[in-house]
């Protein structure tokens, strides 16, 4: 386990934009000394950006406080840094993190804007879970102090990494966007009331009266986008105002523009303005708090009274009047940004706050977590995800899948790391045990990777595609003496426990199993060289259950047939199969399987003994002893029980695993023998019957 501080950067904002950029800048600067997870809502877009930077991510739902609490309790972060765009955000995460024993830092990215009494009270209560407040500007800090929320408040001004310079000449860029020789104004902001789009539209007629060819470029997205689009058309500005949408080419836009305009009603400390200063693009901004702190009027930019369109227009006209002065202001602004709003300074100051808050503080001493890695993130893996996230002593920390997007999505559910390579995952992330949830053809390498590292593992059935691989792995497991379990979850049904009790003194003499179902959609299932066919991949559950209830199989005879199906091109597995089995106990059994149906018709095992008839499915049990046919439903979740038994065994508690790997291999041997018998037309003798 690493001794590096575990740092979680969290935002509940549905549209973090600048907040998210700030978080990513911190993450990039701090990742060398911290283990970092970026947490945000799935719809925010931040998770994809963080993942693209190689960061571990976690999808959160601020409305699901129990889930947040479970996650923080399992993950046991040292520092949780909550980033709030407005006062009502971040409190659920802060409360859950505080309860988990983390030091909680909260950065306020905007001035204190709450006016509703209930919201104000909730915000004040939420701050009781916060150890330290950071404001991104003195203006933001002052607003919180005025609201008497300044306890342990520090100002760390926003800082930016200067954007890369455009590689294209200004004249080329202006031709590309069909911009003539008139001045170009750029506004890059989310379409929201805060940003003041209507004010710049109101100012444009006066600007164009002096500069008839002036063009305004609007970059961004947001809830008012189409409202602003209608207003542009309605006031006759469609020819001079262009809406560019969300952009990833801001260096080019800044190189083509003459001024950045920032008519905001309020700001914390605008990141796009700092980037413009770094890029040498002069700014005209409202004198709203945050802007006034950032710019010195007439020297490093221009300020104009907030909310005054006429004054804004006059200031833009004045700024454009003298090209030499414009260049001088751009140089001064660039110097000012470098001296006061540098990303390295922001990162360094933030790290100092972390050090202060954790100095001498014990690390969270929560319950010891069993760290689980997953190989495979398909449907059956998600079945185990749903169970394991209920356990308060388990943390899923790494997920590998050949499909990167599937690995990413699953990892974001847990704040785990995602990989496409098994060895890379195991080299990078310490785990206590593995779950191997891959198709039959993919077995072998995952198990051997686990054995090589002495890791216990749970593997989903069937354990391999062939018996040679399964036997070899079983021998390696025995030599390594590691804990294993296989997902034959029917063994864990409470109804099966009842049946075992009935059979203890009245053993089954005849069994009939049925797996009458549809064809599964994964294309690998359709091919015998990838799935092994229905007996191996599905009916194996019933074969295993029969072994669990009646003992070892000594003789097998199988038959199979195939029907081509146009809707399943390339399907080559048997579409109908039957098998007759003889057991060492003297019992006999027959199994019937088909994938020709479009629905699940019947899946279950019938057993018959002396004056005893039993019908067993994974949902219910019927026991007939000649006094009617009473049916009862199965209680509990068998997958929960098999997972709990595996985790307990990994933790060194009593080993109650009902199907270790070696036992599962014997079930697999029977299933493969059925297929071999069907191909050869001869009975196959197994075990002691040979």
UniProtKB/TrEMBL annotation:
Residues 17-160 form the Glycosyltransferase subfamily 4-like N-terminal domain. It holds the Pfam family Glyco_transf_4. Residues 514-611 form the GFO/IDH/MocA-like oxidoreductase domain. It comes from the Bacteria. Gene3D superfamilies: Dihydrodipicolinate Reductase, domain 2 (3.30.360.10), Glycogen Phosphorylase B (3.40.50.2000), NAD(P)-binding Rossmann-like Domain (3.40.50.720). Residues 371-488 form the Gfo/Idh/MocA-like oxidoreductase N-terminal domain. InterPro entries: Gfo/Idh/MocA-like_OxRdtase_N, Gfo/Idh/MocA_Oxidoreductase, GFO_IDH_MocA-like_dom, Glyco_trans_4-like_N, NAD(P)-bd_dom_sf. PANTHER family: D-GLUCOSIDE 3-DEHYDROGENASE (PTHR43249:SF1), UDP-N-ACETYL-2-AMINO-2-DEOXY-D-GLUCURONATE OXIDASE (PTHR43249). This is Glycosyltransferase. It comes from Sphingomonas mollis.
């Amino acid at each position: 386990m690493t001794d590096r501080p575990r740092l979680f950067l969290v935002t509940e904002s549905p549209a973090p934009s600048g907040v998210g950029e700030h978080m990513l800048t911190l993450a990039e600067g701090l990742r060398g000394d911290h283990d970092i997870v970026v947490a945000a809502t799935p719809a925010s877009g931040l998770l994809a950006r963080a993942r693209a930077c190689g960061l571990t991510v976690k999808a959160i739902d601020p409305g699901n406080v129990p889930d947040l609490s479970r996650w923080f309790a399992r993950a046991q972060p040292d520092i949780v840094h909550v980033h709030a765009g407005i006062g009502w955000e971040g409190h659920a995460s802060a409360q859950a993190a505080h309860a988990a024993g983390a030091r909680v830092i909260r950065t306020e990215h905007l001035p204190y804007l709450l006016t509703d009494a209930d919201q104000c009270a909730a915000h004040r209560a939420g701050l009781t879970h916060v150890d330290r407040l950071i404001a991104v500007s003195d203006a933001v800090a002052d607003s919180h102090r005025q609201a008497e929320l300044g306890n342990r408040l520090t100002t760390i001004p926003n800082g930016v990494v200067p954007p890369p310079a455009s590689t294209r000449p200004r004249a080329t860029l202006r031709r590309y966007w069909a911009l003539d020789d008139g001045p170009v104004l750029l506004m890059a902001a989310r379409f929201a009331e805060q940003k003041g789009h209507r004010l710049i539209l109101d100012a444009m007629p006066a600007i164009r009266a002096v500069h008839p060819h002036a063009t305004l470029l609007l970059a961004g997205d947001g809830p008012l986008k189409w409202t602003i689009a209608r207003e542009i058309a309605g006031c006759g500005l469609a020819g001079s105002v262009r809406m560019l949408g969300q952009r990833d080419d801001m260096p080019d836009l800044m190189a083509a523009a003459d001024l950045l305009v920032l008519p905001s009603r309020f700001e914390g400390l605008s990141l796009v303005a700092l980037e413009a200063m770094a890029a040498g693009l002069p700014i005209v901004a409202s004198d709203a708090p945050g802007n006034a702190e950032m710019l010195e009027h007439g020297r490093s930019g221009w300020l104009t009274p907030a909310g005054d369109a006429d004054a804004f227009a006059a200031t833009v006209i004045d700024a454009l009047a003298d090209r030499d002065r414009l260049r001088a202001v751009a140089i001064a602004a660039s110097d000012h940004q470098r001296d006061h709003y540098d990303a390295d300074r922001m990162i360094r100051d933030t790290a100092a706050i972390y050090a202060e808050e954790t100095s001498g503080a014990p690390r969270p001493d929560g319950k010891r977590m069993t760290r689980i890695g997953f190989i495979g993130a398909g449907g059956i893996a998600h079945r185990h995800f749903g169970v394991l996230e209920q356990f308060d002593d388990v943390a899923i920390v790494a997920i590998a899948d050949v499909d990167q997007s599937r690995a990413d999505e699953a990892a974001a559910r847990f704040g785990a790391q995602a990989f496409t390579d098994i060895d890379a995952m195991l080299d990078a992330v310490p785990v206590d045990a593995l779950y191997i949830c891959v198709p039959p053809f993919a077995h072998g390498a995952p198990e051997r990777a686990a054995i090589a590292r002495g890791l216990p593992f749970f593997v989903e059935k069937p354990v391999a595609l062939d018996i040679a691989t399964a036997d070899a792995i079983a021998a390696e497991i025995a030599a390594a003496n590691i804990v294993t379990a296989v997902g034959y979850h029917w063994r864990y049904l409470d109804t099966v426990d009842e049946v075992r009790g009935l059979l203890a003194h009245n053993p089954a003499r005849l069994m009939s199993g049925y797996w009458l179902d549809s064809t599964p959609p994964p294309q690998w299932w359709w091919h015998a060289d990838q799935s092994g066919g229905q007996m191996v991949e599905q009916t194996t559950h019933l074969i295993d259950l029969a072994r669990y209830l009646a003992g070892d199989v000594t003789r097998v005879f199988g038959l199979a047939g195939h029907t081509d199906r146009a809707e399943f091109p390339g399907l080559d597995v048997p579409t109908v199969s039957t098998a007759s089995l003889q057991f060492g106990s003297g019992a006999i059994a027959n199994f019937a399987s088909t994938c020709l149906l479009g629905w699940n018709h019947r899946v279950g095992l019938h057993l018959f003994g002396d004056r005893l008839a039993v019908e067993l499915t994974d949902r219910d049990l019927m026991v007939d002893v000649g006094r009617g046919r009473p049916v009862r439903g199965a209680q509990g979740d068998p997958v929960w029980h098999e997972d709990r038994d595996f985790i307990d065994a990994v933790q060194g508690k009593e080993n109650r695993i009902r199907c270790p790997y070696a036992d599962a291999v014997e079930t697999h041997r029977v299933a493969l023998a059925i297929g071999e018998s069907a191909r050869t037309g001869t009975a196959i003798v197994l075990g002691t019957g040979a």
